[in-house]
Write a structure and sequence with these properties.
The protein is of the alpha+beta class. 51% of the residues lie in helices and 16% in strands.
Length: 642
């Protein structure tokens, strides 16, 4: 390639490297994690016919723009996990490209490239670029509209025609409103900066004509959004207040952590967060290089963008981790300021130490992002709820006649994506919940018709706040096992007839100083491999307790080897010991699965109590006036031939 042509392409090398890094970060392990509830909802909505989709979304809390885009996307790419998330990954990649363009338009090409790098490696941005939801699209349209806004104002300042830029801005604004209602805060930031631009122009003839055009392009965007506006109003005004009470300082630190280092960084000290904040502060230093727009206005744009987008979260009282995804546009804005600050320090070569400190600060920030990015990919603590594993577990364990209950909202969509078994699936409570009597009756009906029941618990607070589904199962079936898959819990119950309300064996065995196991009852004394043995324990305390204990029920071989066990807090975790009332009886059900390959013989059944928190110390047991170690023998169980 001739040297002049090579020189012409040289400025594109670094931006292309940044874009390559962004693509690798977003498409890497794109389908490694299971889809979770909201992603399943996205798919099922996108699979509907157009009219049905719009009708269903009108009862949702989001506008239809993303679902329509996903509908068109899956028609081309399919519905695999990779394909579903690839739309967001592509939108995330385009967001990095637009950030580079925006930084170049506001400040300089090197600033755009650095800002693009910060967005490209941000675990916060990548996380939502790997999710089949509308938040990557929100970030893209927010950045794109701001870039068009800057380009349009610069063209107006130069008195150049900018009709295509104005039309593009109107269309992107309409698309943003149809994507997510929080886009309106980006629109508000642009409006504030337009007023500042007019003041800088001293409201001259050009400013007045620009104001008319700006009103017209926003009017066009609003006209395009008008068909959905009544629905949007209903959805926004009925949005439940879901914020959490947390000290303002802690809220601010979490927000800054997410939009600088990333949402997988864990707790970050203020002194670490001071580095990107200082770099952003340096960005406010005037730049005397010629530009069509004043430097104060250009620096104020990302600053106002951050303040309005983040401030809306605090002022509305909607602060909680689940809502921090609305800050993706603020992350782009802060990246612009940080990049500009680092570039400004580096340009001040007469300030040798400041230049090096700025470069070191930027390197440290990128290094922190990469460390947090490793946790995003590989730390189970940041993985999404694993419905893929839940469905696989049920399909391995289910037998003819079993049933599945999906407790609380929005699980059927994602569960049906993975589950290919034949067990009937019941979504309870029905609808929006609230009718506890009906829910109790429907759970009892499931219990009466199925010998074993798998239950997927998630988000009961919204639809089943009184935990009617679990309480009914705990009262009439034996909990066999439970496991967590992220924030989702899979529980298995065995139906062995109505649980007794009185012990069949009297024990009066003290555990520690206050707790007494007054008796027990067994569903069977003879079992076969693969059966479930139901054990009902009856507890009392003589004094209030301030420690929570876990119950363990164990099946032991003659030599003391553990064969099977079931551990939980009393009454299926619903009656922690520190809530017990002295003198009241707590009925506690446990199901022990007899291993399918267990040899026939006589086995011992025993029970114990240990502290819920480390060191998990067991309480000493006394029986018949004599110490009995830390396990109490309950009965001898005969395992028969299969």
């Amino acid at each position: 390639m001739p040297a002049p042509r090579l020189q012409r392409f040289a400025p594109l090398i670094l931006p292309l490297i940044v874009l390559l890094a962004a693509a690798l970060a977003r498409f890497y392990q794109l389908d490694a994690q299971s889809l979770w509830n909201d992603e399943g909802n996205s798919l099922r909505l996108a699979e509907r016919g157009l009219g049905n989709l719009l009708e269903a979304v009108s009862h949702d809390i989001h506008p239809p723009g993303y679902y329509l885009a996903l509908k068109a996307w899956i028609a081309l790419a399919g519905t695999s996990e990779f394909s579903l998330r690839a739309l967001s990954a592509l939108e995330g990649l385009l967001t990095v490209a637009v950030t580079i363009a925006l930084g170049s338009a506001l400040f300089a090409r090197r600033v755009g490239t650095l800002a693009g790098l910060l967005v490209a490696l941000s675990p916060f941005a990548i996380y939502y670029s790997q999710e089949a939801r509308m938040y990557a699209q929100l970030a893209l349209l927010s950045a794109a509209s701001t870039w068009l806004f800057v380009r349009w104002l610069r063209a107006r300042t130069q008195r150049r025609p900018a009709h295509m830029l104005a039309l593009g801005l109107a269309l992107v604004t309409a698309a943003g409103l149809y994507t997510q209602y929080s886009y309106s805060f980006t629109l508000l930031a642009q409006g504030v900066l337009f007023v500042v631009w007019m003041a800088w122009r001293r409201v001259d003839a050009l400013a007045r004509r620009s104001a008319v055009l700006y009103a017209a392009l926003n009017g066009l965007a609003l006209a395009l959004f008008l068909p959905w506006l009544p629905t949007a109003w209903d959805q926004i005004t009925q949005w439940p207040r879901t914020g959490v009470e947390l000290a303002l300082g802690e809220q601010a630190r979490t927000v800054l952590t997410w939009i600088t280092v990333g949402n997988t960084a864990g707790p970050v000290a203020w002194i670490i967060l001071a580095v990107p904040l200082l770099l952003a502060l340096v960005a406010l230093r005037p730049d005397r290089r010629p530009h069509r727009l004043p430097y104060g206005w250009r620096a104020a744009l990302p600053l106002a963008w951050i303040v309005i987008v983040a401030g809306a979260l605090f002022v509305s009282g909607a602060y909680r981790e689940a809502n921090l995804k609305f800050l993706l546009p603020a992350q782009i804005a802060l990246a612009l300021l940080i990049a500009r600050g680092a570039a400004a320090l580096w340009q001040g070569r007469e300030m040798w130490l400041a230049a090096r400190l700025g470069a070191a600060g930027l390197v440290a920030l990128v290094g922190s992002q990469i460390a947090a990015l490793d946790r995003l990919y590989h730390d189970p603590a940041y993985a999404r709820d694993d419905y893929r594993a839940i469905a696989a577990q049920i399909m391995r364990d289910a037998r003819p006649g079993d049933a599945i209950i999906l407790d609380a909202p929005n699980q059927a969509e994602v569960f049906s994506y993975y589950y290919a078994g034949g067990a009937p699936v019941y979504g309870l409570p029905r609808g929006l919940g609230g009718d506890d009597k009906q829910t109790r009756a429907e759970v009892r009906d499931v219990i009466e018709r199925h010998p074993r029941i798998f239950v997927v618990f998630w988000g009961e607070t919204e639809r089943d706040p009184n935990r009617v589904v679990q309480a009914t199962l705990d009262a009439h079936a034996y909990p066999v096992r439970t496991a967590w898959y992220g924030d989702v819990r899979l529980a298995q119950y065995a139906v062995l007839g109505d649980a007794p309300d009185q012990p069949t064996v009297t024990l009066d065995a003290p555990f520690g100083d206050a707790i007494t196991l007054t008796g027990c009852a067994l569903s069977h004394e003879q079992v076969r491999p693969g059966d479930v043995l139901g054990v009902t324990l009856f507890w009392q305390t003589a004094a209030p307790l301030d420690t929570r204990y876990q119950v363990t029920v164990q099946l032991l071989a003659p030599n003391g080897t553990l064969i099977a066990q079931h551990d939980s807090e009393p009454a299926g975790n619903r009656a922690p010991t520190d809530t017990w009332t002295p003198g009241d009886t707590v009925i506690d059900l446990h199901g022990i699965v007899i291993p399918p390959d267990l040899s026939p013989g006589i086995y011992a059944l025993a029970a114990g109590l240990y502290t819920l928190d480390p060191p998990h110390a067991r309480l000493p047991v006394t029986h018949a006036g004599a110490p009995s170690g830390d396990l109490l023998a309950l009965a001898a169980i005969e395992v028969l031939e299969p």
